[in-house]
């Protein structure tokens, strides 16, 4: 009977004691098998059991398997298609601070349900342009100008007035094995032929930061061992390095503090910012978002997590 039992994402969420949005994320990342019936997503009970068994080990710790691009079942999912978003509010981005922001929005804006779309910055801006989401976040660095976000917002949301609001600064750098056995120091080490890396997926800010620097170095990514091996979070690339699966990976400093067996080499402070359409700026809940981001309560909670520079949080960076 277990082979024939079909579950909705809500039923899976109840079994695993997680939110339905987390179920969508697990499916999108390829960690939980799912399939579409029309426009609905369904999961077989046997696949839920397989997922639970895979994440167990004798130490009781969670195992982190690298999520390779080919593992994704729904790589083109912009938002939870199984959800009714007619009265919802979709925020694109992958940082945990967006989970906190979503909670504040639902608390302060009665009747608003928030949904998370865990796609990278490039696809998030595209989804905002296409009207699939209400809010996008971005940490995209342009190597030609040395600026964050503004050049990409101009290109990916053409002809639509937008507002960029600063969320936080984060430090990006290399994850290397503890002790840094290859003596890696910076971007120039990507030219070495004795280096193996593990990469992030196309479209995320970290991948674009890497590719922009490779362009400046006149290095073809395909010449780097492991360049085409893609994972879909900072945590998975960091854990791959910790297990000896690569000599380096690019990610943020905050994640490096969560994974044993790696060192962090700081390279560049990045700007993580929120993008909305200007026409919505003074409507609810958009107006509330700005008030929340600027509030002492919100900043205090982020300070407690650590890893964020909140000096400019809530500032309007540009109106394009």
UniProtKB/TrEMBL annotation:
One of its GO terms (molecular function) is DNA binding. Residues 107-294 form the PBP domain. Residues 6-54 form the Helix-turn-helix domain. It comes from the Bacteria. InterPro entries: HTH_17, PBP_domain, SinI_DNA-bd. NCBIfam families: excise. This is Excisionase. It comes from Clostridium kluyveri (strain NBRC 12016). The lineage of its organism: Bacteria, Bacillati, Bacillota, Clostridia, Eubacteriales.
């Amino acid at each position: 009977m277990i082979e024939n039992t079909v579950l909705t994402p809500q039923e899976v969420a109840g079994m695993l004691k997680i939110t339905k949005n987390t179920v969508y994320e697990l499916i999108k990342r390829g960690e939980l098998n799912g399939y579409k019936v029309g426009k609905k997503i369904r999961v077989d009970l046997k696949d839920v059991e397989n997922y639970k068994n895979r994440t167990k080990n004798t130490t009781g710790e969670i195992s982190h398997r690298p999520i390779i691009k080919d593992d994704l079942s729904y790589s083109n999912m912009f938002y939870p298609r199984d959800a009714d978003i007619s009265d919802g509010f979709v925020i694109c981005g992958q940082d945990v601070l967006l989970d906190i922001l979503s909670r504040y929005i639902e608390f302060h804006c009665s009747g608003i349900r928030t949904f998370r779309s865990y796609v990278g910055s490039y696809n998030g801006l595209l989804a905002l342009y296409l009207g699939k989401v209400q809010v996008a976040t971005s940490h995209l660095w342009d190597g030609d100008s040395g600026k964050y976000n503004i050049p990409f917002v101009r290109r990916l949301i053409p002809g639509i007035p937008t507002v960029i609001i600063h969320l936080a600064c984060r430090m990006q750098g290399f994850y290397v094995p503890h002790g840094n056995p290859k003596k890696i120091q910076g971007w120039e080490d990507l030219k070495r032929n004795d280096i193996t890396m593990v990469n992030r997926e196309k479209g995320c800010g970290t991948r674009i930061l890497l590719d922009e620097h490779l362009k400046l170095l006149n290095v073809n990514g395909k010449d780097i061992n492991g360049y085409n091996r893609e994972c879909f979070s900072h945590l998975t690339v960091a854990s791959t390095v910790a297990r000896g699966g690569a000599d380096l990976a690019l990610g943020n400093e905050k994640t490096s503090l969560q994974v044993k067996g790696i060192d962090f080499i700081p390279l560049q402070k990045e700007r993580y910012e929120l993008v909305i359409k200007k026409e919505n700026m003074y409507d609810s809940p958009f107006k509330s978002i700005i008030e929340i981001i600027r509030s002492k309560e919100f900043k205090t909670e982020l300070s407690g997590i650590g890893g964020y520079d909140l000096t400019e949080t809530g500032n309007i960076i540009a109106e394009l």
